[in-house]
Amino acid sequence: MQFTLRRLTVFATLARTGHFGRAADALGLAQPTVSGEIRGLERTLGVRLFERSRAGTTLTPAGRELLPAAQEVLDAAHRFDSAVDRVSATREVVRLAASPSLVNRVVPQALRAVGALDDGPLVEVVEVLTGGVSAALTAGEAEVGIGHLVDRVAGTKRATLGADELCVLAARGRLAAGEPADLGALEDLRLLIWPREQNPAYYDLVLRACDANGAHPRVVESTTRFSGSYSYLLTDGQAFALVPIDYAREAPASLAWAPLRRPARLPLHVTWRNDPTRGAQVLLEALSRTSREGA
């Protein structure tokens, strides 16, 4: 039998008020909407529920017989909503600060693992700019953070989950398919990267990787991230970028990626506030396990 809680609610309210206008006011609906819901319910059930007349609206014998059952369904739905509220209220909420390169694989897989637990926390993801993970914890915006080369700050702890390979990202046609990239062949391109103040250690590591691969490109800094307004420099073949492999794999079809000829690896850190709650510990374990499986 196909019926909705909304239509049962309209049915019960109209039976109580005996008037389409008063039922509409009680439900916060337009009167034609109430009429439409009743007609739809009558068609679905195959019976007439109300007698309409100038004197008012009254239940038919079928309507009187079905009303108690409809009310039982509505009462059960209300009890279910209340139970959901109680269960949700007992689940701890943990906020996770994550930098852009982690939201493609590591974070979704960790969320999936936590969500599969009957008593796991509710995780809210706070996406921050590269280098903004520690600041999010310091500002009280998150309890756990994950990013590359995360700063150590007072009141938090940090652990290394592993290291991600840096890859070259450039316009299609500038990289040889299936071969490590020769940065020396990209000397005519600029290096697109976010401002150094966002994460000096990460920025300097990228420049060292260029140097180790025989490239000394001119640098062009985007405003905050190169996946936004400045991305045209990549697609137009004016610049290249060095990005973690997970980020490279999610690049648009207009771009190509390749590993470096002389590999460079980017430390992946997780950080959390001192004395983590149980929910934070569950999330930390999920992040650690996801990183190990990815490696």
From TrEMBL:
Q: Which terms are listed as keywords in the entry?
A: DNA-binding, Transcription, Transcription regulation
Q: State what protein this is by name.
A: LysR family transcriptional regulator
Family that this chain belongs to: Belongs to the LysR transcriptional regulatory family.
Q: Name one Pfam family in it.
A: LysR_substrate
Q: Does the keyword Kinase apply?
A: no
Ranges where the HTH lysR-type domain occurs: 3-60
Q: Which PROSITE patterns match?
A: HTH_LYSR
Q: Which domain of life is it from?
A: Bacteria
InterPro entries with a match to the protein in the record: LysR_HTH_N, LysR_subst-bd, WH-like_DNA-bd_sf, WH_DNA-bd_sf
Signal peptide boundaries: none
